[in-house]
Design a protein that fits this description.
This protein has 125 residues and is of the alpha+beta class. The chain has two domains: 30 residues; 86 residues, Immunoglobulin-like, CATH 2.60.40.420. Helices cover 24% and strands 38% of the residues. It is built from two helices and nine strands; from the N terminus they run ααβββββββββ. It has a five-stranded mixed β-sheet, with no helix packed on it. A four-stranded mixed β-sheet has the order 2-1-4-7. The longest helix is centred in the N-terminal third of the chain and has 22 residues.
Length: 125
């Protein structure tokens, strides 16, 4: 038998190939897998006294809201019982939530901001 084809060398090569594919599998799955893991992205722009969302509806599952405060006051973003940190003017924050199909009210919880218009309804299909 040729020394390069010994059963030990073949088994070692097979194990190394299997390990390489097992480790590379998630990377080879593509951006759809990465997007699902991080959640459907929705950009939320906060100003006085309104929110502008890049999308007002998404499919059920994980949603990552990126809140950009372009206003002059601090704001937060609350939806489905979860709330972002207070975001200073010019800063950005994130909030990831898992949502089932339905309609979800969202708002800024800073006193008086929701009453002034920082609220809306987010639809999950």
């Amino acid at each position: 038998m040729h020394p390069l084809l010994s059963p030990i060398r073949l088994a070692s090569a097979a194990a190394a190939a299997f390990a390489a594919f097992a480790l590379a599998g998630p990377a080879l799955a593509g951006s759809a897998h990465a997007r699902h893991a991080a959640g459907t992205p929705v950009k939320v722009t906060a100003t006085e006294f309104k929110f502008k969302l890049s999308s007002t509806s998404v499919a059920a599952g994980s949603v990552t809201f990126t809140i950009v405060n372009k206003g002059k006051l601090a704001h937060d973003f609350a939806i489905a019982g979860k709330k972002s940190a207070l975001i200073a003017p010019g800063k950005t924050g994130k909030l990831t939530v898992t949502l089932k199909a339905g309609k979800y009210p969202y708002k800024c919880t800073v006193p008086g901001h929701a009453a002034a218009g920082m609220k809306g309804i987010f639809v999950v299909k």
